[in-house]
Write a structure and sequence with these properties.
It comes from Micromonospora arborensis. The protein has 3 helices and 7 strands. By secondary structure, it is of the alpha+beta class.
Length: about 160
């Protein structure tokens, strides 16, 4: 596992790895949640489910863990890879994010949002992605681009 800090205290040149889930429902919508306004990265922005890989964890394990931690749902199956994104966060750390279009098991009307990290959720149809540009100055439109690619994958598999 790549780490943000080397054991001798130097900053690593390796990017942090992240796994992200674009959770699709059977109506062709994708799940988004709003990050709390006090979050260090992308405060008060809409986001997909996901986060950093923990030490010793692979992408599949992180994807499963993040879905359950952030929504209470359980990964059912991966429909396809949406993309791989590299960026430097406001904290100055480089990240590589691997995003997947997925289906989950659970009550899709009642996610259990991770306390203190997310304030609300929405299921968006493809024609509603402009909403994700709210606070674009914070994320430079990254979430909207990821959403558009997620909807393209969803269309390609016929929902």
């Amino acid at each position: 596992m790549q780490r943000a800090l080397a054991t001798v205290g130097r900053v690593s040149t390796e990017p942090l790895r992240c796994a992200g889930a674009l959770i699709a429902d059977h109506d062709g919508r994708i799940f988004f949640q709003r990050r709390s306004p006090h979050r260090r990265l992308f405060p008060d922005c809409w986001d997909i489910v996901g986060g950093h890989l923990e030490p010793g964890e692979d992408i599949d394990e992180a994807l499963r863990r993040e879905i359950t931690e952030e929504t209470g749902w359980v990964l059912s199956h991966v429909l396809g890879q949406v993309g791989e994104y590299s960026y430097v966060g406001a904290d100055g750390l480089a990240r590589t994010e691997y995003d997947f279009l997925v289906r989950v098991d659970g009550d899709l009307d009642r996610p259990t949002l991770e306390a203190g990290k997310h304030t609300e959720f929405r299921w968006l149809a493809e024609h509603e992605v402009a909403m994700l540009d709210e606070h674009r100055d914070v994320d430079d439109g990254l979430i909207r681009r990821i959403a558009e690619e997620g909807f393209a994958v969803l269309r390609s598999i016929g929902r």
